[in-house]
Amino acid sequence: MWRRAAFLKPALDALLVELPAQRRIAADPIELPHRYRAQDDVEIAALLASSIAYGRADLFKPRLARFLEELGPSPAAAARALSPRKWKSQLPAFSYRMTDTRDLACLLYGAGRALERHGSLGALYEKCFAVAAGDSRLAQARFVAAIVDVDLTPFVGQRTPSRRLKHLLASPERGSACKRLNLFLRWMVRGPDGVDFGFWKVPKSSLVIPLDTHIHRLSGFLGLTRRKDLSYKTALEITARLAQLDPEDPVKYDFALCHLGISGQCPSRRDVVKCAGCPIRGVCRMWV
Ligand code: SF4
User: Fold this and answer.
1) Distance from the CA of 2 to the center of ligand 1, in angstroms?
2) Domain 1-20+209-288 CATH class label
3) Which atom of ligand 1 is least distant from the CA of 284?
4) What whole-number distance in Å separates Cα of residue 236 and Cα of residue 266?
């Protein structure tokens, strides 16, 4: 038993109570899949929204919202119908930093083939999880490989995924923290709780924290890790510590902690003014 767990749990539970989650959703990429009802539409919108969730949400979210609106009422139907010969006329224009329409076309094409083959992305992931005997890292690697295992030549002039597609849908095989893949899994597996959807039938205990700079900084402040790198290994270490607080649902604090960072309320160092109203000040290593 990690002794600090008993010290952290009440503070983090209080943070969950204090967080106005419904209001935060409006500024979060998860608001985009919440615009749909059918599971396959939510899955495709969530895959796009999580994959593009690098950089600032206020920059990428309106662009993806416009892309989804122009795609039509059912992103899953659009993914199924995507033709390698006609994709340029089928898809709206998209551009955000290192991602453009071509990259989203590759992702949608692979996801559309997975929907045809397995019925839903959830059914695919559940199979990957079973074959991997519950090993999350292996299940995630199999899931990513299955999505991109399509001939991408008509899109990018090569059969295999481009570097840009590997950036959008990273595999844990190479050690990266795979923040956006783990975010997508959190959305699909946890809940339903008004934030996450809870569609997929794999244990919440198998989730890995979506590790980004905000979670990494706050994890250091809370004593969840001393590791300096944003690697899959660090994500596993933080998740294992959080599992000491709640073994069934170790990533339940992710949304609240991440928004403490995103909102700018948590500075990168001790700040008398900003820290004064922080709900986890009593367990933050900047202060205790
Ligand atoms: S006390 Fe300050 S530094 Fe610590 S988590 Fe809260 S806002 Fe961040």
Assistant:
1) 22
2) mainly alpha
3) 4
4) 23
pLDDT in tens, 55-88: 999 999 999 999 999 999 999 999 999 999 999 9
Nearest to 47 by CA among 219, 169, 223, 193: 169
Ligand 1 pocket: which of 286, 287, 288 to mutate (most atoms within 8 A of CB): 286
pLDDT for residue 174 is more than 90: no
Could you tell me the residue ranges of all domains in the chain? 1-20+209-288, 32-202
The whole-model pTM stands at: 0.97
Specify the pLDDT at position 19: 80
Dihedral sign for Cα 270, 274, 276, 278, please.
negative
